[in-house]
Amino acid sequence: MTYRAPMKVSGALDGYQFEEVTPLLGREYPDLQLSEIVKDDAKIRDLAITASERGVLLFRNQDINMADFKVLMQKCGELTGKPKTSRLHKDEFASENNTHLGIPEALDPEIYAVSSINNEKIFDNFLDPRDKKFASRGWHSDESFENVPADYTGFKMIKTPKSGGDTVWASAYEAYDRLSEPWQKFAETLTASHGDPTFCSYLESKGLKFRSEERGSPENVGTTLRAVHPVVQTNPVTGWKALYGLGYQVQFGGINDVTDYESQLIQAYFLRIITDNHDLQIRHKWSPNDVAIWDNRSVFHNITSDFVGERLALRAVSIGNKPYIDPNSVSRKTALNAEKVSSKAPLNGS
Ligand SMILES: [Fe+2]
């Protein structure tokens, strides 16, 4: 396999102010309207590279419509080199199931309605804030149970509850960097099975449609949501290594080629790196029309299920590349430290 060289921004977004959410991840652009850059490939390319580097980009009070949002998200993937066969994800929860929401966009198979009404009516209150399950059960990376998972997720908030419903993200780069060197090497030998084996039969038992036809890639088909991916992957845009196999989507499959007990231990340890280190997390309190764009190869995310009332967001997800690990790639910290050293080196090399 030939591996790609990391991509660098061109400077096309240099005219926009921004603020880093924390030193480690997240960036907010206070005066950028995404609707104004949707026809500017240079700016979209830099936007996508920045999302891959910073993990999450935040934009408040956006007027972009969903048709343009779909174009933007597909271009984020295309302009950063995703395969030609990768398109926008069509969710396995078929859009025909959303007629009761009364929102035309929710009937578009390339838009997924993240709806608290659906959670209450269809998903047996999976997100009920009164239940006693640990909130950490929800950490995930979008569409990781597909053979070709998501690269960029675009998430536009439509309706918010009076309080709560924040989204949290955690750096997958930093999760890898927090492993000791022997564990980093060990993790790189592992694969994990991602999936939700009962989702299709669950929907069918409720008289709802599961989408088994192509879901954003010719490799994403069928009624079984199961995919095997490396536990450490290289983000092809940055060239940095990131932890991948943890959280909700591996709990039904687990770590391959180890004992069941070892799989439980490894999953618990990797999840704990996320849950015990708030310094590698950020949190966004939503207002209507806020947008977040994140790279699922750079971060994990989770909803905060503490709210009462309606929460509705519309999501467009770009399907990316088959996860892989480039043996010559390095961690984010190693790469950034090397950049610092090379920028300090005298030009004559003496
Ligand atoms: Fe998600």
Q: What structural keywords apply?
A:
single chain; 350 residues; alpha+beta; Double-stranded beta-helix; 3-stranded antiparallel sheet; 8 helices; 23% helix; binds fe (ii) ion
What does this structure look like?
The protein has 350 residues and is α+β, with helices and mostly antiparallel strands. It has a single domain (19-332), classed as Double-stranded beta-helix, CATH 3.60.130.10. 23% of the residues lie in helices and 20% in strands. It is built from eight helices and 16 strands. Helix 1 (41-54) packs across helix 2 (66-78). It is globular. Bound molecules: fe (ii) ion (FE2). Residues 140, 142, 301 line the site of fe (ii) ion.
